[in-house]
Amino acid sequence: MTTTPPSFESSDSEMFRPNRQLNKRVELVVKIVFATFAFVSVATTIGIVLTLIFETVAFFQEVSLWKFLTDTAWTPLFANPQFGIFVLISATFLTSVIALMVALPLGLLAAICLSEYASSDIRRWLKPALEILAGVPTVVFGYFALMVVSPFLKTFIPGLQGFNALSAGIVLGIAIIPMVASLSEDAIYAVPNSLRQGAYALGATKRETIIGVVIPAALSGIVASFVLAVSRAVGETMIVSIAAGQNPTLGLNPLVPVMTMTAYIVQVSLGDTPAGSLAYKTIFSVGMTLFLLTLALNIFSFWFVRRFREKYD
Amino acid sequence: MAQDLKPQGDDSGGYFNLALPKRYNFDKIFAFAAWVAIFFGLVILAVLLIDVFLDGLPRLNGQFITSPPSRKPDQAGIFPPLIGSVWLLVLTAIVSFPLGVGAGIFLEEYATDNLLTQIIEINIANLAAVPSIIYGLLGLQVFVRWLAPITNGRSILTGALTLSLLILPIIIVATRESLRAIPNSLRQAGYALGATRWQVIREHIFPLALPGILTGTILALSRAIGETAPLITIGALSFITRPPMNPQDPFTALPIQIYNWISRPQEAFHTNAAAGIVMLMVVLLVMNAGAIFLRNKFQSNR
């Protein structure tokens, strides 16, 4: 009863008084700092685009775009250099197509299995196991393709060479199965149960429900995962540079060594090329081609998902 | 019209053929195919791990771990690349964790839905699909050439900065997802007590979201440890006899050493590559197991 009430004037009062001015300042500083961090991602993109454009323009001052698109050989390091980018693109296309023939059906089936067939107990084990498969470094997959898959395939494909597009493509496909499976599973899992029950009520079996109702309903997500798989296959580096060989050949024969765009960049990078040389500029022009390809795929996926997204509310 | 609607089956006599046994058979085949598809990946994973382990086992000993690389395969070891990878892991974590988490907090807690944040969001989604070797080209031009006075060219710091940019989108997305999972009532309770936005985030939201953020970060870092292509592009040297001592030293890393050994024709170096892969996979499996453990623990507590 005798305690004096705390004085509001004194600065060392026991009563809590928030320092609103300081709070405002801290708030502003935090916001600006974090906004800067968020902007780093935009700066990365700008950096990538500027870097690639800068060196690509320098490249095309020495080599005409026409030669780049029409030459039928890729020999930029030879005395009489040729710059036919389609040699590298054909190899990239070849390994990617083989990879997708492995990854898309298996990945989609795996997604269906996870979402529709596996019980929640099994799912709890299968998903982390697939994540481990996804986390295996590609250099390890490259070893696997060269040391295990190629010798194995050679036992029944006599014409197969030690380095070849076939085993690189197959292992590349295995490497992207988990990504297709996981993204497609998210899409399939998000399809509301009422649609499945509607199909069952009409007398459809489980397979008919999945193929006729669930997959079409999840199509935009599944296609998005497929497109991402394509862009992974196109941009993958280590598997193809280890197992597909380093031999730029035009054509689509999967049994012989080929050189993809990424494998070329690796080959030149290992050679310690001085900055400003023509070889240095070619890796950026090849990188630019690769970047534009994946960007086009990305834009397509973005457009497709927007256009065909099914909404369930 | 009548011809178009001809009954298809012989037994039913009506327009609709039930054919249940046949359909159920297709169902069984389909289900079997789905199970095969999922176990295909896992069987391959098992074959891969067992094969590499058997190949690498003869070389896995103390000498292998503590020796520098050598031109003689039976004397070669993995010490400098191992130390290089540890450096990369630590530096990449130091750079990418605050950047990614800060960006995630800004986008989820501060940003309003305007043009700028939409650009940032589309941009992050796009960056996730950019091939890693392109980041290597960026690192080569920006960190190796332009920032050479700071990074000293082809150094650990260059490698760590390049890998940080590479995994930044993953950390940002993981941060945003864990923040989104925190119920809004917690934030409102904080504001009701007079706390500022930053105080609410710092004292309540962030600690709750931390396990999820850490899970995402560990997974992102384990990806960074396995990355090879961008490091080759920025010119990480593969023949280093002395382990790096500071961030500006030239370096090599486990995946690069493995690649180097695979590319040689001699059989004995391939055994070394397998032994190196076993080391790398052990590190990765431990990191992955840690992330999964963290996530399971976090999920069961809610």
Describe the model.
Chain A contains 12 helices and no strands. With 313 residues, chain A is mainly α. In chain A, 44% of the residues are buried. Chain B has 302 residues and is an all-alpha fold. In chain B, helix 3 (79-110) runs parallel beside helix 7, helix 3 (79-110) runs antiparallel to helix 9 (197-226) and helix 9 packs antiparallel against helix 12 (267-300). Mean pLDDT of chain B is 86; it is low at 1-9.
Rough shape of chain B?
globular
Arithmetic mean of pLDDT of chain A: 87
Radius of gyration of chain B: 26 Å
Helix content of chain A: over 70%
Structural class of chain B: mainly alpha
- Give the distance, in angstroms, between the N- and C-terminal Cα atoms of chain B: 62 Å
* Apparent shape of chain A: globular
Helix-strand pattern of chain B, N to C? HHHHHHHHHHHH
Mean pLDDT of chain B: 86
* Total number of beta strands of chain A: 0
- Unreliable residue stretches of chain A: none
Oligomer: heterodimer
What share of the residues of chain A does DSSP label as strand, in percent? under 5%
Which ranges of chain B are low-confidence, i.e. pLDDT below 50, for 5 or more consecutive residues?
Answer: 1-9
Largest sheet of chain A: none
Relevant terms:
heterodimer; A: 313 residues; mainly alpha; 12 helices; B: 302 residues; 72% helix
